[in-house]
Design a protein that fits this description.
Blueprint lengths: L16 E2 L3 E5 L5 H8 L2 H4 L9 H16 L5 E8 L4 E12 L4 E8 L8 H16 L4 E7 L3 H9 L3 E12 L2 E11 L5
Parallel strand pairs: 5-6
Antiparallel strand pairs: 1-2, 2-3, 3-4, 4-5, 6-8, 7-8
Helix pairs in contact: 1-3
Bound molecules: coenzyme A.
The site of coenzyme A (COA) has 22 residues, from β5, α4 and α5.
């Protein structure tokens, strides 16, 4: 079921999402330690609007994810990224509907630094694009990053997303106005 065939409950993503190396599932309260292991790190939040988190902030974040899971229709799918075969939680990645009328969604992703550089972010974000276009029926998916965040920009480019804009001082990141890149991809461009 997708947005084009609207129902009262709205579109859903069939969870968990599975890729060759990852299983992406809903967060639960017991994920706190694993989430805090990356959300508390300065190198992780350097280009983000949040963090580094205190333990209380990590707990609040998980509570927020769980609240989003209960929404009906659900519009926010922030997922725990776990690594096969032991399903170790290595980060979070999500897709959300940001403009229902115009079938537009947004993706985002964060991994623990121990797992950077193995192509896992591309794998996770690719599964989100797939779910966004095929399960949610989105027509356009966007993502943004601090212009200094080379890794994130590269992830989007690897996914076939197009840089549609370069914004000046568009977001407060770690206390400073920062320039952002804006990327997007259309359903018809996604293979
Ligand atoms: C962004 C992030 C998720 C990338 O994760 P990752 O698993 O290392 O990414 P991948 O291994 O899938 O690499 C994707 C591409 O980025 C490139 N890349 C990774 N780090 C890079 C860096 N510091 N500078 C330039 N390119 C980089 C990789 O080489 C790869 O490109 P290639 O396939 O052409 O070689 C990770 O750096 C992270 O969690 N950062 C902190 C949170 C964050 O900034 N999230 C994005 C918010 S917009």
């Amino acid at each position: 079921m997708n947005l084009r065939g609207r129902t009262r409950r709205g579109p859903e993503i069939d969870l968990p999402l599975e890729t060759p190396r990852l299983i992406m599932r809903d967060f639960k309260k017991s994920d706190l330690k694993a989430v805090h292991a990356y959300s508390s790190l300065e190198e992780v939040s350097r280009f983000l609007v949040w963090g580094p988190n205190t333990l209380a902030q990590s707990r609040e974040a998980i509570e927020g994810f769980i609240e989003d899971q209960r929404a009906s229709p659900r519009e926010i799918f922030d997922l725990a990224v776990t690594l096969k075969p032991k399903r170790v939680l290595i980060g979070g990645a999500g897709v959300r509907i940001i403009d229902r009328d115009n079938l537009t969604g947004e993706i985002g992703y964060t991994l623990h630094p121990d797992f950077w550089g193995y192509g896992l972010a591309v794998e996770a974000a690719g599964a989100l694009l797939e779910a966004g276009f095929h399960a949610l029926g989105l027509q356009r998916i966007v993502a943004t990053c601090d212009q200094r965040n080379k890794a994130s920009a590269r992830v989007m480019e690897r996914l076939g997303m197009r840089r549609e804009g370069a914004f000046r001082a568009s977001k407060v990141i770690q206390g400073h106005w920062r320039d952002e890149f804006f990327y997007a991809i259309l359903a018809e461009e996604f293979s």
